[in-house]
Each structure stands twice: as C-alpha cells, then as structure tokens.
Amino acid sequence: MSDTPPPAFLAGGGEMGALMRSHDWAAHPLGVPAQWPSLLKSTLRLLLTSNHPMFIWWGDELHQFYNDAYRRTMGAEHHPADLGQRGRECWAEAWPVIGPQIDDVMAGRGASWHENALVPMSRHGNREDVYWTYGCSPIEDEERVHGVLALCTDVTGEVRLREKLKQSYVTVIDSMDEGLAVIQIIVDDAGLPVDYRFLEVNPAFERQTGLVGAIGRTARELVPGLEERWFQIYGKVALTGESVRFMEGSEPMNRWFDVYAIRVGPAEEKKVALMFRDVSERTRTEQALRDADRRKDEFLAMLAHELRNPLAPISAAANLLQLASTDPARVKQASAVIGRQVRHISGLIDDLLDVSRVTRGMIPLVKVRTDVKRVVADAIEQLRPLIENRGHRLRVETRAASALVLGDPKRLVQVVANLLNNAAKYTPHGGDIALELDVEDDQVILSVTDNGIGMTARVLEHAFELFVQAERETDRAQGGLGIGLALVKSLVGLHGGEVFASSDGLGLGSRFTICLPHLPEQEERSPVHAEASRERGAGWRALRVMVVDDNVDAAEMLAMLLETTGHQVAIEHHALQVVNRAQACVPDVFLLDIGLPDLDGYALARQIRAAPELAGAVLIAITGYGDEQARQEASAAGFDHHFVKPIETARLLALLDTLALA
Fold first, then answer.
1. At what angle do helices 328-359 and 280-323 cross, to 10 degrees?
2. ∠233-278-273 over CA atoms, to 5°?
3. Does the structure show a pLDDT above 50 at 229?
4. Using the 8-state DSSP alphabet, how is residue 218 labeled?
5. Are 375 and 508 in contact (CB under 8 A)?
6. Are 599 and 576 in contact (CB under 8 A)?
7. Within 497-621, where are the H helices?
C-alpha cells in the first residue's frame, strides 16, 4: 500500500471505512479513490457517516459499496468479499426481484419505494426469505444517472409477527411464553395519545404484568399513576406505524419490561400489538452487581486512605530516628509513634480477617453460659476512652435480673463494642448515647441509641452490608473501614439472634437492637450433666439416632453425648452409604452435616425422604450457616430442624427429649 494519506471522503466510517481505505483499488475498474468522480465521493461520504443500513451500486456494472449498518445484515458469504464487486453477481438470487427496479432507476425513471418486500437472500449458509422495506434513489447529475443509492431495513421479524397474528390470533396469543397484548390508543381532541385500552391479552400477560381482568379496561384504570411515557411511546407507534423495541420500567408497577411494539390493522384503528417480557429480576440483579462493584471500589479507596494515614507518621518517625539517633528522648518518642501506628494497622487487618471469616461461617465460637450484663461492662470499658474523648454522655440501663445467653463472650463483647463505636463515631461532639438491656419472653434484647447524624431510608436498607460506609455523610476523623455493622450482623446470626437498625432520618439519630435467645436460670448447670441426670418421665423412650459427619472426631463426640443421655447412636462418615445402612436399622432421627464431601446434606436429605421406610424420620441439619437463606434451603430439602455449629447442646437434648416423649 502507498504511504499517501487516504482521501478525506473515506475518513471514519467504522469497519467499512477502514476496509475501503485499505482495499487495493489500483487494479479495480474504478481506479484509485483519488480519481473517482466527485459525485461518487460525496455519496460515499454520506454512506459512511450514516447509521442507517445503506449501499451504493455505481456505474453501468453496478459496483457495490456499503456501510457498517448494512454489513450486519449480509452474512459471511458476502462480507467482505462483495466490496467493489458487481451487484448482479453478488445478489444473483435476489436479482429477479430487484433487477427490474434497479434498471428503472438507472434508466432515469425516478426513485422507487418498497415496503415489506420479500427478497430471497443467501446468507449465514442458508437461503432465506427476507423481508425488506427499502428505497432506491438515482445518483445523478445534470447529464445522467450514474448509480443507485439504496436505504433498507430488515423487517422480517415484524412481517412474520404480523402473519402470525393474522393467521391465528388466538393460537399465537395462548401459546407464547412472552406476554402479548393488543391495545387501542385513545387520543384527545388534538389527536394526542392520552390512554390506551386492552383489546386482547394472552395467559402470559397476567404472569408478566400482575394485572388481572385487563380486557376492556384502560391502562389508567389498571395502573393509576402510570407514567406518561408509555402513552407517548405506544401512541407514536400507532400514529406513525414505526415499530419500536425498548426496555423500560414502571414505578407504580414495580417492574421492568423488554417490549416490542408494532402497529396492526389499518392506521385509523390505532391498534398496537405488544410482545413483552418481565425483566425486573434481571434488571435488579444487574443494578445490584453495579452497586456492589461501586461499593467495592469505594471500600478499596477507603482502605487505601486508612492505610496511608498511619504510614505518614511512621515514615516521619523513621526519618527522625536517623537524624536524632543519639537523643534518647527523641528515639523514645519516635518509637512510641511507630508502635501506636503499627497497632492501628494491625487492628485494621484484624477487622478485615474477622469479617471475612465470620461472613463465611469459618470462625470458631466457644459458647458458654454468658451474662450479657458482663458483656456490656467489658464493651463499655473498651469504648470509654473514645466516648469520653468525644464528650458524649453515656446512659446505661439494665432492667433484667438475669440476662444469660449461650454464647462466645469475646465475640459478644466485639458486637456491643462495635455498636457503641458506631454510635460514638456518628454522633457529634457532646451527644447522647443510651444502652438498654432487658429480657422479654425468651429473648435478651440490647439496644444502642444515639442522637447523631441518623440515616436516610436508602442507607438504612443497606446498613449491615459491606462497602456501604461511603454512602453516609460521615465524620471520617475516627477512621475505620466501615465493616463493623456487617461483622455485628454475622456474629449475632452465628449466635442464633437477629439485629435491627432504625432511624427517623438525617440528623435524627439511630437505634440498633440485637435479640439473642435467653438461657433460663434453671439451665445454669452444665447442659450435658443436667440432661443426663434428669429422671425420665413415663412414656420416654430411647431414640435410634444416626449421626452423619465426615469429621470423625466431631461425629464421635456428638455420639458420645447422645449415648450418655440414653439414646442409641450409629455413626456414618460416608453419605453414599447412609440410605442402605439406615434401611437396616431405621433411625428415628438423623443428624446430618451439610458440608459432606461425596454428597451434600441437602441431597442426602432428599434421598432419605424418598425412601418409604425412612419417610417418618426426623431430619436435623447441622451447618455452619445460620442465615435465613440457609434455613430456607434446609427446609426445602426436607429438614425438620436446623442447628448452627457449634451445636447448642441444651437445645438439641431438649428437642430429642420432646421427640422421645412423642
């Protein structure tokens, strides 16, 4: 190729512009582009800058040029080989239809327009019946016609849909998975669309829209407050005949739709056929992924900020040690700075590791009888310096005589400390913080209330999620990674409890409440010995229990506990052998670990439920996940009960006693 810059009229134009510039025109009958007639150059410029499918047949041989939009309709048989080739040879199969039309234009008989015309084409390896709406215009000067400019649109989908509607209205409507409706546009005195009435709908219409009894009613009747844009879009289709494909959401319907709308019937009837699908779940998922990605980026920026902050004094202290190495006081001061900042960085890393382990259910909990009043005292001791430094007034009220729970004291202190830390950080200097502890029914309830900056409804909705701190107008002076509340939610869930957040809005403070299962006073003795030593009442019977766990030690310890309390226990470590073995001994109760290597506990539960002789057994799931989704999944698999590791032995033994008396 020559180093000469390409002519300006071939600039841009996407792939086809590049292809025309790189093409070897020297051996072509038209010669190099610089020698082409000005009429051809100007028309090519129009073609390359248009987003509409368009092609040119130039000269008596009808040499072919086309743009990117037309290229997408051609198929590999024609592109890129057809560039510059003779039109009659490129489209031999279509020439019986279009040939006479082109001849008329070249003969000077004027332009032609063709709607929904069948033009057979060979593309994508097949001969296809393709419908086009196209126009052929002469490229001419004062002397004669030199070529043809064609604008075209592939309307095959529209034509075939119209044919289906015409041939079998009812069959098409009833058999489609997509929602389908035929509507009639209602216009005002000025001819502007103001509403539409439903004439026909298929069964999928109700599933896709949630609208019942639509036929004969208007959109405004069915959906009060429906956005005006729906009337404008469909009105334009009815009035112009231009089909449209779009994706749009409706707030009153709380749904998103992928819609294809075409006019049907005579124009004066203003009827439009709608084919659509509810894409709300997909749209919300995509939005959630975008939000999660954005929050991740914000979190990483925050993490970088938090890690850089202590690096500055560490760097300054290191330089000071070099310059003042003989001054003991300066060395001591610099060393203290480095030590404090390293501890700060270590704390950030510990927070990250904690939230990662806890949210994946991988953190071990050492559950013992724990007085939440003691937990509160320890948490306040940790947070008192921060609270006093910010001048807050802390009020503590414990109304319960006994606030015992079965929990890990260290992790529960971490929960309460995080709530107090959150309140202190987001409450302006001199604010009020209240911690209240009480027992209601079988729940220990602890709440932390502040009169700080509060939360909007949107922030409140995501308060316990990771990576959302940047969405609050926070005071960043205290630092942190914004993962404390996510950690609180996970730890409380691992203790079988729940956590809630509430706020009346910005500037109106916040309230966080945790609820944990209360451990009654009579269970202060060791649960194992209490259950083992209790006299069995009349009607109590030993249960046949099968423990299924690939962890040998865990299975044996659990079996030993159950045998100590009088039950008959069998152990199985391999899920694939459970059903065969159980059919021989027919257990009353199965304790199934969910994370089994050869077959997970959910699938094993379904196999047990499918065995007639085992159908009456009680299935208890043993899992590291205590969230609602895990409970729902266990219930769907056939489990009767759901226990989170480490098992609350008192609760398990009480459940087995209940079953033994049934």
1. 160
2. 45
3. yes
4. B
5. no
6. yes
7. 527-533, 552-564, 578-585, 601-610
**At a CB cut-off of 8 Å and minimum separation 6, what does 33 contact?**
6, 7, 9, 10, 20, 25, 41
Pure H helices in 116-211: 156-167, 169-175, 203-209
CA distance 550 to 69: 61
Task: With H, G, I as helix, E, B as strand and everything else as coil, classify residue 370.
Answer: strand
Token pair 């199934």 is at which residue?
Answer: 592
**Each residue of 91-111: pLDDT tens digit?**
888 899 999 999 999 999 999
Distance of alpha carbon 377 from the chain centroid: 41
Peptide bond into 80 cis (omega under 30): yes
- What are phi and psi for residue 56, nearest 5 degrees? -125, 135
CA separation for the pair 431, 388 (Å, rounded): 11
Q: What is the pLDDT of residues 23-45, one digit of tens each?
A: 999 989 999 998 999 999 999 99
Closest CA relative to residue 158, chosen from 127, 133, 177, 188: 133
Burial class (CB in 10 A: 0-12, 13-18, 19+), 48: buried
**Residue 294 is which amino acid?**
R
- Burial status of residue 419 (CB atoms within 10 A of its CB: 0-12, 13-18, 19 or more): buried
Q: Distance between CA 112 and CA 130 in Å, rounded?
A: 19
Strand runs (DSSP E) across 67-161, as ranges?
A: 112-123, 126-140, 145-154
CA-based Rg of the chain, rounded to a whole angstrom? 38
- Which residues are 569's β-sheet partners? 545
**How far is the C-alpha of 204 from the C-alpha of 277, rounded, in Å?**
9
**C-alpha to C-alpha distance for 234 and 262, rounded to whole angstroms:** 9
> What is the per-residue pLDDT for 481?
44
* Type of residue numbered 592: L
Tokens representing 46 are 């129009």
Residues 6 or more apart from 358 whose CB is under 8 A from it? 487, 490, 491, 494
Residue 293 parent element (H or E) = helix 280-323
Predicted pLDDT of residue 482: 55
Token pair for residue 335? 């060393």
Distance CA 39, CA 59 (A): 11
Token pair in block for residue 143: 């002397």
